[in-house]
Design goal:
By secondary structure, the chain is of the alpha+beta class. Among the domains are: 297 residues, Glycosyl hydrolase family 63, N-terminal domain (Beta-galactosidase, Chain A, domain 5, Distorted Sandwich); 138 residues, no CATH class. 33% of the residues lie in helices and 18% in strands. Bound molecules: 2-acetamido-2-deoxy-beta-D-glucopyranose. It is found in: Endoplasmic reticulum membrane. One of its GO terms (cellular component) is endoplasmic reticulum membrane. Its main location: endoplasmic reticulum.
């Protein structure tokens, strides 16, 4: 083995392409806004999607299912298993059309262009006693350079047997797509006027469209228009009521016209009862023909290996008391699968207004933009690419900056290297000034889901800096596997001799499944590559979100460390992430407790990274800043009178005062483990948190005290409802710090931790069973799921809470 290893440096060309494993991430369900939409992680490429509608009447075509919509009223749709490298299994329940669909995806590695895949779409009646008739349409379209042709013999009445498309594009090279029926399907053969349609019934119908580049995402419009036009001709002879209309299955069909040079192809099938069909995508360079057997056996093996791996990575500790162990396990699997199955690939322009500012945003020392930049007005940027998890497939199918740090904590526990790929894409969005837009609405498809007033991003607006969570979690995983890179590897020599990097043999390699975790050099290279942009980002925060101290005669040990969110309006601080949380009136002199706490956290995590990669000067500087911030949290934000941490504002007499609204905000120094465990301020925080009159509920911590005059008022977004990521932060602080470290409140912290954890898990699980969905937030009084659903972004953190991974 030694000699082989020594040979490795001689063949870097071969290795470099495959060295970080990103080739197994080329294909995925990267259109999470669709019930089932596959595409590669490549700009302007092949896009596929699934649509279906019921054929029990003529109306249900107007409710064709395609993009995930809460208005579709599906009972549920959930990936029961999903792995970004292997595939997934999704179950979609559509009672209105009496069909339960299963979509299976199997990724098959091979060749040089991202590999092949096979997908199976299965349907069965939910209620076998009533008809289950649906039409499915699978489409594939090529957005960029290249072409696709249909090989199957054209026939004006439809196609018998498989439909075969061949194509090629720059990144995917040559490929074949085959759509193949299962053995036991029954098409729709009977129904009103069946005789007249005998030639066309039971066949697969197709259409090919020439549409402008970049518009494949609008496939549904083209496809439905084709069906409706065709139907108008077919139905004309049946207008006379005495004749009666034919069965919709005979009418609502694609035209079976294929234009040469088409870039979009639709393949439509009609079913009566249970059915299945397979779609095979074969990358020519892989030289492997896929069959239904490959798919069947592959999915079976995938499910087994997934379940085994899941049990190992996210076990339910035996100490956890529940009578519903099996269902809790499936739930945990589903939320993890949906988080990872919710990862999307986005490419396109976004809208930025460089000159926008509220009057209170202006202050003298942060003006640094070019005159040119200050021109007001929203403009399109250059196109950018982003692989990212999404908070909600139906409601927020795009990248959100502060959600992403939480997403990556969870993703990284399942697939470390996937979390690094995603993080890298986010880091690439950091601009020359160090700014990243808090909502990533890239391209027209993503924009189509966002109301116009929320599309524009402003380069002075921030959002809670959570991305470094993913970096320190990665470093923690590295440290758990090895004592860390040797001084030699760091290019440092402290004269202490070099320590060997030894992989612990506690975890088998198959479980680690990570090239980064098994290759310290690769890891260091990665960390170094993201360090400078991260630092630029950090410096941007310190420069642009600074708050004023001396102007209002405030006394603080540090003269510089105070912070204020820019971009707040009168009633909202969208940039803080806690949109309508009560914050007092806008003022250029206000100081925000959550932001200064995030800055302490950001500084601390930057210190950890700097230390790990050997940037010792930087690390020393971060230590000083962190101390200054921690001092100022005490000096500026602690209200002795109210016994709590508060925002700070300025009154009409230019006097500084505390704005104290009991809720998540008041917890921040605790939530981010900034307080030492013997802090005298910990007691009052735990009291507030545990008090049912304030934040404590049987379902988790409320965002605003139940005794607050604004509790449950107005939009009631952050005025009471229970949010999972904040409960996760509280549990994490309790578990890792306050329940773990000795101190006057240790015992209390342990009790609160156990109770809170159980409340949160039981409620989210119960609501999932009751409603079929995971929700954006939970009602402060009843614990019922509220707002967007499914919301398998940070609500999925419940898996980490179950298995105590903080
Ligand atoms: C992995 O390698 C590919 C190809 O060289 C590169 O595009 C990608 O950014 C790398 N991923 C990471 C996380 O560094």
């Amino acid at each position: 083995m030694r000699s082989l290893l020594l040979l490795l440096p001689l063949v870097p060309a071969v290795l470099s392409e495959a060295v970080n494993g990103s080739e197994s991430l080329v294909w995925g369900a990267y259109r999470p806004n669709l019930y089932f939409g596959l595409r590669p992680r490549v700009p302007q490429s092949l896009m596929t999607g699934l649509m279906w509608f019921g054929t029990q009447n003529y109306q249900s075509i107007s409710k064709t299912r395609h993009t995930c919509e809460q208005g579709d009223g599906l009972d549920s749709y959930t990936w029961t298993n999903y792995d970004a490298r292997e595939g997934g299994i999704q179950i979609i329940k559509d009672s209105l059309n009496n069909v339960k669909l299963t979509t299976e995806l199997l990724k098959v590695p091979g060749g040089d262009h991202g590999g092949s895949w096979a997908a199976r779409i299965k349907g069965e009646p939910i209620n076998p006693d009533i008809p289950s008739r649906i039409s499915t349409i699978f489409y594939a379209g090529l957005d960029g350079l290249g072409g696709i042709d249909m090989e199957s013999e054209e026939n004006e009445n439809g196609v018998d047997g498989p439909v075969v498309l061949t194509g090629s594009s720059v990144d995917l090279d040559e490929f074949t797509l085959r759509i193949v029926d299962g053995p036991d399907n029954s098409g729709v053969l009977n129904g009103a006027h069946a005789q007249a349609f005998a030639d066309r019934s039971g066949k697969t119908h197709v259409a090919g469209f020439r549409i402008p580049p970049g518009t494949i995402w609008q496939a549904k419009d083209h496809i439905l228009q084709n069906i409706i036009q065709h139907a108008q001709g077919v139905i004309a002879p049946y207008r006379d009521p005495s004749v009666g209309q034919p069965d919709p299955s005979f009418v609502l069909q694609l035209s079976d016209e294929v234009y040469s040079g088409s870039s979009l192809y639709a393949i439509q099938k009609f079913f009566d009862g249970p059915f299945q069909f397979d779609v095979f995508f074969e990358s020519a360079s892989a030289k492997q023909k896929l069959t239904s057997t490959t798919l069947e056996e592959g999915i079976k093996a995938f499910k087994t290996s997934y379940d085994t791996r899941f049990d190992k990575l996210f076990p339910i500790p035996p100490s956890y008391q529940t009578s519903k162990l099996d269902s809790l396990k499936e739930f945990s699997k589903a939320i993890t699968s949906n988080l990872i199955g919710g990862i999307g690939y986005f490419y396109g322009t976004s809208i930025v207004d460089k000159g926008f500012a509220y009057e209170w945003d202006q202050d003298d020392d942060t003006d640094e933009q070019d005159e040119d930049d200050k021109k007001k007005g929203a403009r399109l940027t250059e196109p950018k690419a982003l692989l990212t998890a999404t908070p909600s497939r139906s409601f927020f199918p795009r990248g959100f900056y502060w959600d992403e740090g939480f997403h990556l904590l969870h993703v990284g526990e399942w697939d470390n290297d996937l979390s690094l790929e995603i993080l890298k894409d986010w880091i690439n969005l950091i601009d020359d000034n160090g700014w990243v837009a808090r909502e990533q609405i890239l391209g027209e498809e993503a924009r189509s889901k966002v109301p116009a007033e929320f599309q524009t991003q402003v380069p002075t607006f921030a959002n809670p800096p959570t991305l470094t969570m993913a970096v320190t979690a990665f470093i923690d995983r590295l440290k758990a596997l090895s004592p860390g890179p040797s001084e030699q590897e760091l290019g440092l020599d402290f004269g202490m001799g070099s320590s060997q990097v030894v992989m612990s043999d506690q975890k088998p390699q198959s479980e680690i499944r990570s090239r980064y975790l098994s290759d310290p050099e690769l890891s260091l290279g990665y960390l170094r590559s993201i360090y400078q942009p991260l630092k630029r980002h950090y410096d941007w925060f310190r420069r642009t979100q600074r708050g004023q101290i001396k102007q209002y005669g405030r006394k603080a040990r540090s003269r510089t460390e105070a912070y204020r969110w820019r971009g707040r309006s009168k009633d909202h601080v969208l940039t803080s992430g806690m949109d309508d949380y009560p914050r007092g009136p806008p003022h250029a002199g206000e100081l925000h407790l959550d932001l200064i706490s995030w800055m302490a956290f950001f500084t601390r995590t930057m210190r950890d990274i700097a230390q790990f990669i050997g940037e010792t000067d930087d690390a020393a500087a971060f230590i000083e800043v962190e101390k200054a911030i921690l001092d100022n949290i005490e000096d500026l934000h602690w209200s002795e009178e109210n016994q709590m941490y508060c925002d700070v504002n300025v009154d009409d007499e230019d006097e500084s005062y505390h704005v104290c609204d009991k809720g998540y905000l008041s917890l921040f120094p605790f939530l981010l483990s900034l307080l030492p465990s013997d802090s005298p301020h910990l007691g009052p925080i735990l009291d507030m948190l545990r008090d049912p009159e304030h934040l404590w509920s049987p379902y988790g911590l409320r965002s605003l005290s139940a005794s607050h005059p604004q509790f449950g008022q107005g939009e009631n977004y952050w005025k009471g409802p229970i949010w999972m990521q904040m409960n996760y932060l509280a549990l994490s602080a309790l578990h890792k710090t306050y329940a773990a470290q000795e101190g006057p409140y240790q015992k209390r912290a342990q009790e609160v931790y156990a109770e809170l954890r159980k409340n949160v898990i039981d409620n989210v699980h119960k609501e999932y069973e009751r409603t079929g969905y995971v929700w954006e937030q939970y009602d402060a009084k009843t614990g019922e799921g509220r707002r967007s659903h499914p919301f398998t972004g940070w609500t999925s953190l419940v898996t980490l809470i179950i298995s105590e991974k903080y």
